[in-house]
Design goal:
The protein is mainly α. The chain has one domain: Orthogonal Bundle (Rna Polymerase Sigma Factor, Chain: A). About 75% of the residues lie in helices and about 0% in strands. The chain contains 9 helices and no strands.
Length: about 160
Amino acid sequence: MNKGFRLVVERYSTRLYWHIRRLVILHEDADDALQNTFVNAWRNISNFRNESSLYTWLYAIATNEALTLINKRIRNSAISLDDLGSWFANSTEGSTWFDGDEAQVKLQNAIIRLPEKQRIVFNLKYYDEMTYADMSKVLKTSVGALKASYHHAVKKIENILSGI
């Protein structure tokens, strides 16, 4: 690995790890997806064009790696993609994956229950403070659709937290 790429890994590892971890939940899966993210970035660096920033390009790869792991987990179980969040929230793994105060745990368990796309959009906006324009590049969807997904995610979280 050359020095320049090593600096990229050092700069983005923590942010990408937590982005992936919020999607895949388990530390081991997040580590695997992060490693795969950087392997794919290294292999495809010649395909990187300055049409987007390195930041959004890496987030797109990381998101795809996380979704690949989630889909593999679903294929190996009887859980549908939409039910995955509820399963984690109600499982021993899901209820203990996040170490925080009670309010943070309740928020995390509400986020886990969101449909996949809304969960990704919410995490990118809320935790990563990503702009809709950058999200559009990462997720290859329109800003309007992203705003709608975020709005629906917030409403669902509010309803879950209020017990509706």
